[in-house]
Automatic annotation (TrEMBL), chains A, B:
<dbReference type="Pfam" id="PF17678">
    <property type="entry name" value="Glyco_hydro_92N"/>
</dbReference>
<keyword id="KW-0732">Signal</keyword>
<dbReference type="InterPro" id="IPR041371">
    <property type="entry name" value="GH92_N"/>
</dbReference>
<comment type="subunit">
    <text>Monomer.</text>
</comment>
<dbReference type="InterPro" id="IPR008928">
    <property type="entry name" value="6-hairpin_glycosidase_sf"/>
</dbReference>
<dbReference type="Pfam" id="PF07971">
    <property type="entry name" value="Glyco_hydro_92"/>
</dbReference>
<dbReference type="GO" id="GO:0000224">
    <property type="term" value="F:peptide-N4-(N-acetyl-beta-glucosaminyl)asparagine amidase activity"/>
</dbReference>
<dbReference type="InterPro" id="IPR014718">
    <property type="entry name" value="GH-type_carb-bd"/>
</dbReference>
<dbReference type="GO" id="GO:0006516">
    <property type="term" value="P:glycoprotein catabolic process"/>
</dbReference>
<feature type="signal peptide">
    <location>
        <begin position="1"/>
        <end position="20"/>
    </location>
</feature>
<dbReference type="GO" id="GO:0005829">
    <property type="term" value="C:cytosol"/>
</dbReference>
<feature type="domain" description="Glycosyl hydrolase family 92 N-terminal">
    <location>
        <begin position="29"/>
        <end position="271"/>
    </location>
</feature>
<keyword id="KW-0106">Calcium</keyword>
<dbReference type="InterPro" id="IPR050883">
    <property type="entry name" value="PNGase"/>
</dbReference>
<dbReference type="InterPro" id="IPR012939">
    <property type="entry name" value="Glyco_hydro_92"/>
</dbReference>
<feature type="domain" description="Glycosyl hydrolase family 92">
    <location>
        <begin position="277"/>
        <end position="739"/>
    </location>
</feature>
<protein>
    <submittedName>
        <fullName>Alpha-1,2-mannosidase, putative</fullName>
    </submittedName>
</protein>
Length: 755, 755
C-alpha cells in the first residue's frame, strides 16, 4: 500500500500545482488507510477511517463499507470490505462503538429500482487499486457505476465531486436513516425531514437517539446541477417529486442528467443546532464551486498542523508518525457553528465566542492525546477545557465520554480532571483556575453514574459487592483525586488539598500484600476470592475494567514510589515488571480490547500504556528502553492493520508520537515526561511561544535502541525524565544510541522520575 | 355530586372573600368532575380531568389516579379510582391517548421506604367526600397521610399548597419518570436532570419520546420551606443529598419539617424551551407566596372567559353548559414562554411576539370547537391560525394532530384547513390571507402521511387497496378541498379554485347507487365487497375510520344538496335519515369510539355530530329538532360520566354549547349555523365587537322541544339556519317552543340551509 500511495499522491499533488516543495510536505507522509482494517483473522481494527476531514472538524466525510456498521466497523470503513454503501458526513476515529454516520450520500448510474424499507440497492463494489486518500481528500471509483467519487471537507461542511459517465440516468441517494444497527444502544431516528427548497438545494435534519441520548443533525446541501426529479421513501411511504417529507426512515434518490456535464459537485453543511446554521456553515466555508481550492485549503491546514513536529527518520517511521499525528488531530470535534451556536448539555442552544468541542473519549485520551494537545495545541486545549467547563456548568459534573455534546458514561473514572489540571498547571492561557477547580471539586464530590463518592469516602476503596469494576475504579479514582489535590495545592486550598490527597492514597487499601496484587474487597473488608490475576473483566461484573489484575497492578501514576514500596522495593518491583512482560499465559477468555501482547502487556488497550516506562522509577531505565523500543517496532506499521487495537480517538497514535520522540507522560498531569527509547533520528517540536525543542538520537536503528548517553542543551543529562518546563524553554535533547544497554545511564536515585 | 359540589363551593368562595356576587358567577356552575369517569361497566370516559388550569394554559396541574395511566385514563384521572399517585403539571383533556403527565409531585408524611425502580410506594387513598374542584383550583385530602393538597395554576406555572400534619417527617416526591406506559408509543425518557441550586429550589427537565416524537419539558420549582434533605433514585442508582442528578428514571424524595409550620407551598414553572425560561415563567406569573391570590386570579380569568355567554336555564343546564365551555377553553394550549420562545417543528427554538399554541386535535375540534373559538375567541383564533402557519413554514404542511408542537398523524384529513378558512372568511383580524392560502394549497398538494394526493387526483377517490380508510378519507378530503376552493374563490385564484372545487366533488365517485351508500373501490374501479354498512373500522385496515358505512354516509357538509340528489331527493334522504336514527342493529364488534347511540347515530364520536341537523336541508326541520333535543337530553349530564364518549379536547362540549343555544355549524367553514332545538331559556353571546347576540326559547322544557315560530330582531324568521354575519351584527333570535312539531316552520325551499 505504501508504494501505491506515493504514486497516487504525486499524481494528485502535481495536478494541484502545489509546486516544488512537495517532497517536504508532512501531509505526503500521512496514510489515512493505516488502522482502517483488522489483520486477517482478528476482529481488532484501529477503527480509523480514510475519508476527508480537517483538524478537529465537525465533518468527517468518509465512505461507509457497510450499510449497517456495527462495533467492529465503528468508523464505517473496513479495509477488508469490498463494497461501499455511501459517503456519510460524520464519523468517529478509533472508537469501539459505531456511531454518527449522518447524512449519507451515494451516487449511482442506471435505473432506479424499488427498494424495500431498510434496503440499500445501490451499494457498489470498489477496489483499493482505484482508491486514494490523503489528509482532507479521499477518492474512489465506484466500480458498479463507473463513477469516480472525490471527497473533501472543511470544518463544518463536506464537498463531494462525482464524475459520472455520460448518462441520462445519473442519481444520488441521500439517506437520513443510515446509522448503526437500530437494535444497538436503542438506536432510533425520532424524527427527520428532507426538503427541496429549489432545484439545486436540499435541506433537512434528523433527530436520533443512540449511543448519545439525543443528537440533532441538520444539513443544507447544494448541487452544481439541477435535481430533475426526486423519489423519496420514508419506510413504506413513497413520494415522487416531493417538496418536503417528514418521517423517520427517509431515503431519497435524486435524478440528474450527466449526458452533457459529467461532474456533479455537492456542498453539504452540517450543524447540530439548525438548518439555518448548516446553511451559514457551508456558505461561509465553501462560498464557491471550487473543489480543488477546498482540497488545497484542507491540505494547507493539515500541513500547518502536522508541521508542529518535524522529524527525520525512515519513510516508514514518517508515515506511521505523521499518520498518528493526523489521527490525534482529528478530534475532539468542533460542535459549534461558525456563528458560535452549539447544543448545550441541557438540550438548549447556547452561544460561545470560542469553538465548542465534543468527542471526549477521556478514559483513553487523557493519557497521551491530551498532553500532546497541551504541548502542540495550547489554544485548542484551552477551548477543550472551556468546553468541558461550560458543559459542567449545566450538567453538574465533567464529561466522562462525551459525544455530540452528551454523556454516554462509557468507561470509568473522571478523567477530564487530569486533562484540566494538566492544562492549568502548564499555564495554558485562557482557563480560569478557580472555575476549573470548582468543576473538579464538584465532579469529585457529586455522585453520578460510575462515580459512587459516598462509598468511596466511607470505605476508602470501592467494595466490589456495592459497585463493580471496583479495583479499576479504586485505582483510577485515586489518580483523579491526586489531580484535584494538586490543583488545590496550587490554589492554596488547604482543606480540599487534604481531603483529596488522602483520597489519592486509597489505592493502598486494595493492595493484598500476601499475593502482591490489587484485588477486590467487599464492604466488610474481606478479600473477594479466588483471585486470578490473569482473568479479564470487560465493562462490569468483575473488579477489573477491560483488563486483568496484572495489567491494572501498575496503575498508580501519581505515586509510583508508593507502589514500589508496597511491592517491597525496587528489586521486587522490577522483578514483577519482568514477569509481567514475559508471562505468556493467557486465560481462556481474553477481553475484546486486549491485544498487542508482550507477555501480559497489551498495547491494544490503554491500561498498559504507561507500564513499560515504570522501570525508570526503580533504576533500570534500560529495560524501559528495551520494551518501549519493542512496542514501537512491533505494534505499529503502515498497513490497514497498523495499530494493535482500536486507535481510540488518537490515543494509540499519541503513544507512538511521544514514545518515538523518546518520552511519554506516565502521569499525564504532573508536567513530567518519562524517557523511553527514542526511535526517530530527530524530532523538532515547534512550540506556540516560538521556541523549538529538538530531540535527536544519534546512531538510532532497529538494533540501536539503548541510550548510551544524553545531553540537554549541550550538558550531560542522566535524568530519565524531562520536564515540561524544559521543553517549553526550547532547546535540544541529544541521545546517543547503541545496541547494548548502558545500565549506568539514568540508574541513580536522583535520575529517577519525580512522582 | 352536584349537591356536594355546591356546598363545597360556597365554603371555599366565602373563604376567598369574593363578595356578594357569588351567586351570579359563571365559574360556580363549572363542575370539573364532569367527564372524569366512565359510567359503570363502560370503558368510555370523557377523559377529562378535575385539576387546576387557566384558559388555554401550558400547565394543567391535576391529580393522577394511576401510577401508569393508559388510554382509558388518558387525562390521568378516573373518577372511579380510589388512590392518587401524584399531581403532575401537564394533561390532555378528553383525548383517547394518555400523554404528558410531566413533573409529578406527591406529598406524604411518615418514613421513607426503599422503592424498587418503577414503583410508587407513596400513593394515597382519597375520597370524593374530601375532594373539591372549580376552575383554576383543586383540593383533595390524601387520606393515608392526613395531608390536604390544594392546587392552582397560571398559564405557565402550577402552585401547590400542601397542609401537612404537625410532623418532622414531611416529604414531597418529585417524579420525572412518570408517564404513560413505556411500552405504549415507544415511550422512553431519553434524558432528564434534577438539580438543587439552593435549599428552596429544584430545577430540571426531561426529554421524552412518546406520542409526540420528542418533548422537552423544563421546570423550575420553589418551595416555601427549606428542603432539609433529598433522596434521589435514577432507576437503580441512588443518591443522598444530591446537588444534581442526570438520568432517565429520576424520582426524588424531598424531606421537610412541618412540626412548626404545617403548610408547604410549591411554585412550579414549566417551559418547553429551557430551565431559564421555566424560571422566568413562574417568577413572572407567581411573583409572591400568595396562593389565594393565584386562585382568585385563575377564578377571575375563567369568569371573564365564561361570561362570554350568559345563559338562563336550570342549574343542571348551567352546570353542563359552563363546564362544557370550560372544557372547550382548556385548549389549544400555550406552548410559548412569557418571553415568546417556543419549540418549533424543526426542533429549534424560535420566538414569537404572540402566543404560540399547540394541542390541535383537529379531526375532532374543527367541527365545533374551532367555530366556537372564532365566535368567542377571535384574537386567540388568530393566534391559533398563526401558530399553525408558523408550523407549516418549517414543517411543510399544516398540523393534523399536533401535540407539544409536534405532529403525531393521529386520525385522517387535513382539518387545519377548515379552521383556517373559517377564520379568514369570518375576517378574524391578524391573519394574512395569502400566507394562509399558500399553506392550505401546499398542505393539499404535498403528499404526507395519510394524505396521498397523487392517487387522490389520479383516481378521483382513494382506492382502498392503495390506502386504507379510503371511504372516510375520500369524504373528508373532499370537504377539505372544498374549503381550499372557497378561499381560492375569495382570493380570485381561478386555477386553484377550479382544481379544488373539482376535487371537492370526488366524494361522488364512491357513491354506490345500487345500495345507496359510500363504499370502497379498488384502483381498478371495482367495488370492494361484501359491503356491510353496520361494520366498523377503527384506524386502519378498513374503509371507514372509527365508524361504519351508516355513520360516514352523511359526511358531505360542503354539498348536502349534492348528497340529497345522489340519494334521490328529499324524501329518500329523510327516509334514510329516519332509518339511521332508528336502526338498532349492532354488529358484534363496535369500535371503542362508538357510543352514545340513537339507532346508528353515535354521539360519543365525531363522525355523527352533524347528522341530526341534516333534516333541515330536506325540509323536515322538526326531525332535526326532535333528535337534537334527544341528544341534548340523553347524552349529557352532570356526573363524572357526563359525556357519552371522549370529550376530545372539548369537541363534545362544543357540540353541547352550540346545540343548547339552538344551532350548530354543520359545515364549519361556510359561516352558517343550522338551527336545531334550543334548550336554554336564554343565551347571550358577547362578541368581541361589543355587540350581543341573544337567543331566547320561550316555553322551552324537556317536553317543549319543537320550534313553533321564531323572530330575528323582532321580525318573523323561518329560515332553519342563521348566518355568522347576522350574529356578528348583534341582535335577538327568539324562538317559541312547544310540545308538538310545527311542521311548516322552516320547511320551505328558501328556508333550508345554504350549502
Amino acid at each position: 500500500m505504501k508504494f501505491k500511495k506515493i504514486i497516487y499522491c504525486c499524481a494528485i499533488v502535481s495536478s494541484l500545482n502545489l509546486g516544488a516543495q512537495t517532497a517536504e510536505k508532512k501531509t505526503s507522509h500521512v496514510n489515512p488507510f493505516i488502522g482502517t482494517g483488522a489483520a486477517h483473522g482478528s476482529p481488532l481494527s484501529g477503527n480509523n477511517y480514510p475519508g476527508a476531514t480537517v483538524p478537529f472538524g465537525m465533518v468527517q466525510l468518509s465512505p461507509d463499507t457497510r450499510n449497517i456498521p456495527d462495533w467492529s466497523v465503528a468508523s464505517g470503513y473496513n479495509y477488508n470490505d469490498t463494497t461501499i454503501a455511501g459517503f456519510s458526513h460524520t464519523h468517529l476515529s478509533g472508537t469501539g462503538v459505531a456511531e454518527l454516520f449522518d447524512v449519507m450520500l451515494m451516487p449511482f448510474s442506471g435505473s432506479v429500482v424499488k427498494e424495500e424499507a431498510g434496503q440499500n440497492a445501490y451499494q457498489s463494489k470498489f477496489s483499493h487499486d482505484k482508491e486514494f486518500a490523503k489528509p482532507g481528500y479521499y477518492s474512489v471509483e465506484l466500480l458498479d457505476y463507473q463513477i469516480k467519487a472525490e471527497l473533501t471537507a472543511t470544518t463544518h461542511a463536506g464537498f463531494h465531486k462525482y464524475s459520472f459517465p455520460k448518462n441520462k440516468e445519473a442519481h444520488i441517494v441521500i439517506d437520513l436513516d443510515h446509522s448503526m444497527k437500530k437494535s444497538d444502544w436503542n438506536t432510533r431516528v425520532i424524527a427527520s425531514q428532507l426538503s427541496f427548497p429549489n432545484d439545486y438545494t436540499i435541506e433537512g435534519y434528523r433527530i436520533i437517539t443512540g449511543w448519545a441520548p439525543m443528537r440533532k443533525v441538520y444539513f443544507h446541501a447544494e448541487f452544481s446541477q439541477p435535481i430533475l426529479h426526486n423519489h423519496v421513501a420514508d419506510g413504506g411511504n413513497v413520494y415522487e417529486n416531493a417538496k418536503i417529507v417528514n418521517g423517520n426512515a427517509i431515503r431519497a434518490i435524486l435524478d440528474f442528467d450527466t449526458s452533457k456535464e459529467q461532474e456533479i459537485l455537492v456542498k453539504v453543511g452540517i450543524s447540530a443546532t439548525s438548518i439555518e446554521n448548516a446553511r451559514l456553515n457551508v456558505q461561509t466555508e465553501i462560498p464557491v464551486w471550487n473543489f480543488e481550492a477546498i482540497v488545497n485549503t484542507a491540505d494547507a491546514v493539515w500541513e500547518k498542523e502536522l508541521s508542529k513536529i518535524k522529524i527525520e527518520g525512515t519513510e516508514e517511521q514518517k508515515q506511521i508518525f505523521y499518520t498518528a499525528l493526523y489521527h490525534t488531530f482529528i478530534q475532539p470535534n468542533t460542535l459549534s457553528d461558525v456563528n458560535g451556536d452549539y447544543p448545550s448539555a441541557d438540550f438548549t442552544v447556547r452561544n460561545s465566542s470560542k469553538s465548542y468541542y465534543s468527542t471526549f473519549s477521556l478514559w483513553d485520551t487523557y493519557r497521551g492525546a491530551h498532553p500532546l494537545y497541551t504541548l502542540l495545541q495550547p489554544e485548542r486545549s484551552a477551548d477543550f477545557v472551556n468546553s468541558m467547563l461550560a458543559y459542567y456548568k449545566v450538567f453538574g459534573y465533567l464529561p466522562i465520554w462525551q459525544l455530540w455534546g452528551q454523556e454516554n458514561y462509557c468507561m470509568i473514572g473522571n478523567h477530564a480532571i487530569p486533562v484540566i489540571v494538566d492544562a492549568v498547571l502548564k499555564k495554558i492561557p485562557g482557563i480560569d483556575a478557580e472555575t476549573a477547580f470548582e468543576a473538579l471539586k464538584n465532579s469529585s464530590l457529586r455522585e453520578h453514574p460510575g462515580s459512587p463518592f459516598g462509598i468511596w469516602e466511607k470505605y476508602g476503596y470501592i467494595p466490589e459487592n456495592l459497585k463493580s469494576q471496583s479495583v479499576s475504579l479504586t485505582l483510577e479514582m485515586a489518580y483523579d483525586d491526586w489531580c484535584v489535590a494538586e490543583l488545590a495545592k496550587k490554589l492554596v486550598k488547604i482543606d480540599e488539598y487534604n481531603q483529596f490527597a488522602e483520597r489519592s492514597q486509597f489505592y493502598k487499601n486494595l493492595y493484598d500484600k500476601k499475593i502482591s496484587f490489587f484485588r477486590a474487597k467487599d464492604d466488610k473488608g474481606n478479600w473477594i476470592g479466588p483471585f486470578d490475576p490473569l482473568k479479564y473483566g470487560a465493562n462490569g461484573g468483575y473488579p477489573f475494567t477491560e483488563g486483568n489484575g496484572w495489567q491494572y497492578f501498575w496503575y498508580v501514576p501519581q505515586d509510583v514510589k508508593g507502589l514500589i514500596n508496597l511491592v517491597g522495593g525496587n528489586n521486587a518491583f522490577t522483578k514483577k515488571l519482568d514477569t509481567f512482560f514475559t508471562l505468556e499465559d493467557k486465560p481462556e477468555e481474553v477481553n475484546d480490547n486486549a491485544s498487542g501482547f508482550i507477555g501480559q502487556y497489551a498495547h491494544g488497550n490503554e491500561p498498559s500504556h504507561h507500564i513499560a516506562y515504570l522501570y525508570n522509577y526503580a533504576g533500570e531505565p534500560w529495560k524501559t528502553q528495551k520494551y518501549t523500543a519493542d512496542i514501537l517496532k512491533k505494534m505499529y506499521n503502515t498497513t490497514s492493520s497498523g495499530y494493535s487495537g482500536n486507535d481510540d480517538c488518537g490515543e494509540l497514535s499519541a503513544w507512538y508520537i511521544f514514545s518515538s520522540i523518546g518520552f511519554y507522560p506516565v502521569n499525564p498531569a504532573n508536567g513530567v515526561y518519562v524517557i523511553g527509547s527514542p526511535r526517530l533520528k530527530e524530532a523538532s517540536i515547534e512550540l506556540k511561544n516560538g521556541k523549538i525543542f529538538k530531540v535527536t538520537a544519534k546512531n538510532v536503528s532497529d538494533q540501536n535502541s539503548y541510550i548510551q548517553s544524553a545531553k540537554l542543551n549541550g550538558k550531560s543529562y542522566t535524568k530519565t525524565f524531562v520536564k515540561h518546563t524544559d521543553i517549553e524553554a526550547g532547546g535540544t535533547l541529544e541521545f546517543v544510541m547503541g545496541p547494548k544497554p548502558n545500565k549506568n545511564w539514568g540508574s541513580k536515585l536522583e535520575d529517577r522520575p519525580i512522582n
